[in-house]
Amino acid sequence: MARILRVARSSSLYGSRFYSTSAEEVSRASPFLHGGGGASRVLAKDRNVQWVFLGCPGVGKGTYASRLSTLLGVPHIATGDLVREELASSGPLSRQLSEIVNQGKLVSDEIIVNLLSKRLEAGEAKGESGFILDGFPRTMRQAEILGDVTDIDLVVNLKLPEEVLVDKCLGRRTCKQCGKGFNVAHINLKGENGKPAISMDPLLPPPQCMSKLITRADDTEEVVKARLRIYNETSQPLEEYYRSKGKLMEFDLPGGIPESWPRLLEALRLDDYEEKQSAAA
Q1: Where are the beta strands (DSSP E) in 18-164?
Q2: Between the CA of residue 190 and those of 193, 195, 203, what are the distances in Å?
Q3: Has residue 217 got a pLDDT over 60?
Q4: What is the pLDDT of the chain when averaged over all its residues?
């Protein structure tokens, strides 16, 4: 834990501005880029964004955090990826992590902090600045650790109905050859009781990957529902913590990527910025 305190205070989290455009243009693009709590708070303009993505397992945190990472030019750090990399490494934590994941339990604060600390050190060595955290913090203790060492500008909480989340998790597939992820679930939730309908097309693999698809060991209905239950129990205090600080933005996903991505950019007031980036490319 001491190591993450040391690394997070280093210059890698407080580096140069992430845009080549002027500070005034950046501020007009989105009130969230240099501050938390929307337009009411503007932080120093000498560092990159420091955002957190929250949401139940399977909601799509990684997809949208990765897209924003590319758009804004900041590293996307997913604790789920850190855990999977450690599992594949046969390192000292591999066996312990394997038991935890296969039982659908959440990884302990100590292990997550250790893995994140290692990732931050590696990023510092490469000159990275700022971050979009995906899957951290998950507990109040983690949030307090993070809050002690750095400012979080914005916390984006992605939301989907539980029925959709279960179907999405059960539909996840990975090509064992190329490593790319796909999803074979076709979501078509009818709108009722004032709630909108949600439709998501499957993300099918190309023909060369079709026969090489594998399913994660923890993607069973029993484990997925247990994971969702545990997440909901632990996330409520976390959401309230960031809500009380004026940093929480809750976003109900209206569908798949084609429907949700432009609306998320609009909510973040980044839609004009994406158009400018595309025009400049």
Answers
A1: 50-54, 76-78, 131-134, 154-159
A2: 10, 9, 20
A3: yes
A4: 81
Cβ atoms of 140 and 238 closer than 8 Å: yes
Q: Exposure of 194 by Cβ count < 10 A (0-12 exposed, 13-18 middle, 19+ buried)?
A: exposed
SS3 (DSSP) at 135: coil
Which pLDDT belongs to residue 14? 28
Question: pLDDT per residue over 49-59, tens digit each?
Answer: 899 999 998 89
**What is the pTM (predicted TM-score) of this model?**
0.75
* CA end-to-end span of the chain: 41
Distance CA(15)–CA(48), nearest Å, equals 7
DSSP-assigned beta bridge partners for residue 252: 159
Tokens describing residue 127: 């000159």
Report the alpha-carbon angle 42-44-47, nearest 5.
120
Among candidates 89, 115, 87, 81, which has minimal Cα distance to 99? 87
